[in-house]
Specification:
mainly alpha; about 70% helix; about 475 residues; two-stranded antiparallel ribbon; 2 domains
């Protein structure tokens, strides 16, 4: 029996079942979100969004079948060519795509609208998998590490030029794959610190205490604490950590008391002096211990300080006004219930009104009265929360969790680096979409406009995720073959 016939025996039907179930639930949710009592139609009406989505689903089934019938080695040989084709397509989109809500990311081909960024994820995942599959590729080498980062960041830059920030951020999730393949955890720690520093600096930027900018002071203290922690960890001296924290607390506490009771002055001078003292002390420790990792702590602290000084410039001069407002609304800095915060406010009302059991299928008032914009695309989860309640939303998240766990299992059982890296890329992309979309809908993350996998209306999104998933299933079905 040929391998192409044998694929049906080795195919992971568990993943296929989860995919079909999620797509079906998404189709039903689109029908509920777009249902109009004044012009009621059946779910099979091809003039309505549910009918159009059914067409996309049928096309997705055809795409899945073609992918399963493809020889796995084809994906390896086409990885770089596809990556280049998608880069060219992203570049062309910048110049030929129409301006839709301030973004030039959709190609209009007659009645069909396609978003190249959705498909470019596929090409990037394949290219990254092939790059890491090279025998002499080692992420611990700076040259290899920067090549991998450049491969990921190049489409990000092109998508940012389309003014499509949400889609661009998805690609950054692929950097997590590098950690699985040997990248130092320091880079993930640095990314986490950068996010925390940015949030703290922006959220408390307008607060002042005794002539001291609270946001900048807090970040300086965080940088100092991180430096002390890194030094203590590299030297493996827990006592050093406790003593250093005590010294910082005493000095900063004394300075705050002087500022409050005697003479008000900017506490940034004290925090900056403490940080520079810690940097110099770390340098001295290096010459005493010859522990080379201490230089990492010094460079990390200095770059963090430079990063802090750039936050205000990036937030004020680089980000657009609508992006700044979305971040401020998400962080609770300002209220804008009738402007940028309107979508999220109405979405939270809809989800909250569903309670535990929900209002019932087609019985949601917030969604049926069209209070929630984009309720069948980016904000479709609020329809689930209102009509199916807490249990329905939990069930959907459980299905996604089962799918993600299964994808990781498939990735881990691959016998090639190509298959493993590609599998983790699929998991990272789906997880990022899921986490950001849900966080956006419930108001804990800024609105950046990315779809919920298999649920949001649209062919580009559904086809993109279908291609990603079934390519992995094809590779997995052939994991015992050499390709």
């Amino acid at each position: 029996m040929s391998r192409r016939n044998n694929v049906w025996y080795s195919l992971d039907w568990y993943t296929v079942a989860l995919y079909l179930l999620l797509v079906f639930c998404g189709w039903i949710s689109i029908y509920a979100a777009s249902f109009d009592f004044d012009a009621a139609s059946t779910i099979f009406n091809f003039d309505a969004r549910s009918g159009k989505q059914l067409l996309w689903i049928l096309f997705s089934m055809m795409i899945a079948f073609v992918l399963l019938m493809t020889e796995p080695r084809t994906f390896v040989s086409l990885a770089y060519p596809l990556y280049i084709v998608f880069l060219v397509l992203l570049l062309v989109t910048i110049f030929v795509a129409p301006d839709i809500k301030g973004s030039r990311s959709w190609l209009v081909l007659g009645p069909v609208h396609l978003q190249p960024a959705e498909f470019a994820k596929y090409g990037t995942a394949l290219a990254l998998a092939k790059m890491l599959d090279n025998y002499d590729f080692d992420l611990t080498k700076p040259r290899c590490f920067f090549k991998a980062c450049a491969l990921i960041l190049l489409p990000v830059l092109l998508i940012l030029m389309q003014q499509e920030t949400g889609s661009a951020l998805v690609y950054l999730s692929l950097i997590c794959i590098l950690y699985r393949e040997g990248m130092s955890s320091l880079f993930l720690f640095a990314a986490l610190c950068a996010v925390v520093y940015f949030i703290v600096a922006v959220k408390y930027a307008s607060l002042e205490w005794m002539d001291t900018p609270v946001g900048e002071w807090l970040v300086l203290m965080l940088i100092l604490l991180v430096l002390v922690y890194m030094v203590a960890r590299y030297l493996r001296r827990a006592r050093f950590l406790y003593v250093s924290l005590l010294v910082v607390a005493v000095v900063q506490g004394a300075a705050a008391a002087v500022a409050y009771y005697l003479y008000p002055f900017n506490q940034l001078y004290v925090a900056g002096l403490l940080l520079m003292t810690a940097v110099v002390a770390t340098g001295v420790l290096y010459f005493k211990t010859l522990q080379h990792k201490l230089w990492i702590a010094v460079v990390f602290a200095l770059f963090s300080a430079v990063y802090l000084e750039s936050v205000d410039y990036v937030f004020t001069d680089v980000l657009g006004q609508h992006q700044r407002t979305r971040i401020e609304v998400a962080l609770g800095i300002k209220e804008d219930p009738m402007g940028v915060g309107y979508n999220v406010n109405q979405s939270k009302i809809a989800i909250g009104s569903g309670g535990f059991w929900g209002k019932g299928f087609l019985q949601g008032t917030q969604t049926k009265l069209r209070y929630v914009p984009e309720q069948d695309t980016d904000f479709i989860f609020c329809t689930i929360g209102e009509e199916q309640g807490f249990w329905g939303a939990t069930l959907v998240l459980t299905l996604f969790a089962l799918l993600l766990v299964r994808i990781i299992q498939l990735a881990e059982r691959q016998r090639t680096v190509f298959g493993r890296v590609y599998g983790y890329s699929v998991a990272a992309i789906i997880f990022f979409h899921l986490a950001v979309n849900i966080g956006m809908v419930i108001g804990v993350l800024p609105v950046i406009g990315i779809p919920l996998p298999f649920f949001s209306y649209g062919g580009s999104s559904l086809w993109g995720f279908t291609i990603l998933l079934f390519t992995l299933l094809c590779i997995d079905a052939s994991r015992n073959d050499s390709f």
